[in-house]
Design brief:
Helix 2 runs parallel beside helix 5 and helix 6 crosses helix 8. The protein has one domain: Alpha/Beta hydrolase fold, catalytic domain (Rossmann fold), CATH 3.40.50.1820. Strand 4, helix 3 and strand 5 form a beta-alpha-beta unit. It is built from eleven helices and eleven strands. Helix content is about 35%, strand content about 25%. The protein has an eleven-stranded mixed β-sheet with strand order 3-2-1-5-4-6-7-8-9-11-10, sandwiched between helices. It is α/β, with parallel strands linked by helices.
Length: about 350
């Protein structure tokens, strides 16, 4: 079954790459993906981006992003300096169309009328600009062959690797919580009775974890698969407070971790040695019925923090999780592990 599943996924991806994710684009060298957004960023006055790094009220809109015809699964194709972005070669944010809350809901409802799928919400992490959040959201939607409506939430990260920027991002993500809660409530209400799947990365997991920990049982019924990738959250708080609260509402939660994640290793140092939930070094967090997937062997990059969107095996695993709700035992490339931490799954390289 696993071999068939892997082959089927490869065929789906190749078919999309060959035909494009949108009809009527045979005359250009790229597909165009629409992703909707909510953001607490203030519109930028510069020419380098549509939204900046300062915080403001919740805003809504939609983005059009190009995916090259020869796109490689897991790649976020970008130009090398001093090249200019080329939609036929790169993943490019082509257009941003802001709107009010009512128009936002109407756009998604119109989109879902012609789609069979659910909703997907992506929440980015530390050091991410609005443009890169839009590009990653579109790439994920494309590579996951997602059927339905894709959205992302862009909180005001400083989009910088400066040491002070990390602390600034921690303050920014915490301040964005009320607006994020309101955005998810509206999004889940708009797509009802379909499910809203949530995929969050790094520091963005703080928004998702706090929201899911506190929502009502009724709200929880509208949530589909919850994929927490490389969470930059205190491991003890995550294990003892957040996970029990989420699981108590019946939501299916999958945690992706790695012991090669240098970004989380640095975060651990910043937090005076406190382990992060996505860091598998030492103690892998195991809280059944939450599924824990150890992706340590699949990312050989220097930083090892973006495997959720860069690695084909992880994307394949997430595809079968969201599309068919298959348990780990029926997904390709996962090996059951039992050690002092408990029972979890390790992804084959």
């Amino acid at each position: 079954m696993r071999t068939i599943a892997a082959a089927t996924f490869a065929c789906v991806v190749l078919l999309i790459a060959a035909c494009g994710a949108r009809a009527g684009q045979a005359d250009i060298g790229h597909s165009q993906i629409t992703v909707h957004y909510g953001t607490t960023r203030v519109p930028s006055t510069s020419t380098s981006g549509h939204y900046g790094t300062e915080a403001g009220p919740l805003r809504y809109g939609s983005c059009t992003v190009s995916i090259p015809r020869d796109h490689r699964m897991g790649a976020l194709e970008s130009p090398r300096w001093p090249q200019s972005p080329n939609p036929d070669r790169h993943v490019v944010l082509l257009e941003v169309d802001a709107c009010d809350a009512l128009s936002f809901a109407e756009r998604i409802q119109t989109e879902l009328q012609s789609a069979e799928g659910d909703g997907l919400l992506f929440v980015h992490g530390f050091n991410v600009s609005f443009t890169d959040a839009a590009r990653r959201s579109a790439q994920l939607s494309y590579d996951l062959a997602f059927r339905g409506s894709s959205s992302f939430f862009a909180w005001p990260s400083r989009a910088s690797l400066r040491p002070a920027a990390y602390r600034d991002d921690e303050l920014s993500v915490a301040a964005a919580q009320p607006s994020f809660d309101r955005f998810v409530n509206q999004l889940s209400t708009t797509i009802a009775p379909r499910k809203l799947h949530i995929l969050s990365h790094s520091m963005g997991n703080r928004l998702v974890a706090n929201y899911l920990k506190d929502i009502s049982q009724e709200r929880a019924r509208g949530i589909g698969q919850v994929l927490l990738t490389a969470p930059d959250i205190d491991a003890a708080v995550f294990r003892d407070q957040i996970v029990p609260a989420m699981l108590g509402k019946g939501m299916p939660v999958t945690l992706y971790v790695s012991d090669h994640d240098r970004a989380l290793a640095i975060s651990r140092e910043i937090h005076e040695g406190a382990q992060r939930a996505g860091d598998a070094r030492g103690n892998v967090i195991v809280n059944p019925p939450m599924d824990t997937i150890d992706a340590s062997d699949v990312d050989t990059s220097f930083i090892g923090h973006s495997y959720y969107g860069d690695q084909r095996s992880v994307l394949s695993d997430m595809y079968y999780l969201m599309r068919f709700a298959l348990p780990p035992s029926e997904r390709h490339g996962l090996q059951a592990i039992t050690d002092l931490n408990g029972s979890y799954w390790r992804m084959a390289p």
